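pasting for the record
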Amino acid sequence: METIKAQTNQNDTYDGAGPLVGIGLAISIGILAAVAVLPSWAPNLAATLIGSSPKAYWYLSRGLAFVALALLWISMALGLLITDKLSRTWPGAAAAFAIHEYVSLLGVAFAGFHALVLLGDRYIGYTPADILVPFASAKYQPFWIGLGQVGLYVWVLVAGSFYVRRRIGPTTWKLIHAASFFTFLVALMHGLAAGTDTGSFWAQAGYWFMGGSLLFLTAYRIAASIAGPENRAPAPTTAPRLPES
């Protein structure tokens, strides 16, 4: 039995080294690319960040918005599929639940950065109050910007509920978690009405794909629930443990 434990520990160490090597390699490639490219880009880059009319913050905010929406979509898609028998096959209920949780938290971070980087943009001139208080700014699309702010705070509440699930109980947790549908709908409306990329084909395609796929998965989830409990697998709260020796 001790031999099995030693082999398990060795395997755990080996499995953990792979991602670290990949991360180190990616960082090294990024540094080399920066050394090769930045000398020619540095003057323009400085102007976009600290010039009289910096544009980098506006472009960065737009990119972060789409990343945050994509992460919200991934998190919700996983949440809708977790209790289905499909999750038992791949990647497994425990893994799917963990990814669902972490992707949601990552999406909140990207959405927060999407708002905060606008403080560096001078064209509209957002203040901290404009960014943090819903409907406080009348500078650009006040209703749709405020609605997006409300959606972000609701998302924070939903993501935070992962950490109090055992205290509030599964019923209350599911009710809070259902608010993620409100968050996605609000985020979609916020992007369509206030996003400057809404007219682009790729943005329209992304909105249609994410919204349509979630609508399909929601209908599938409801149909599977009506069909019977054999199609559902309970979502785990912890990762599976190794058998005790």
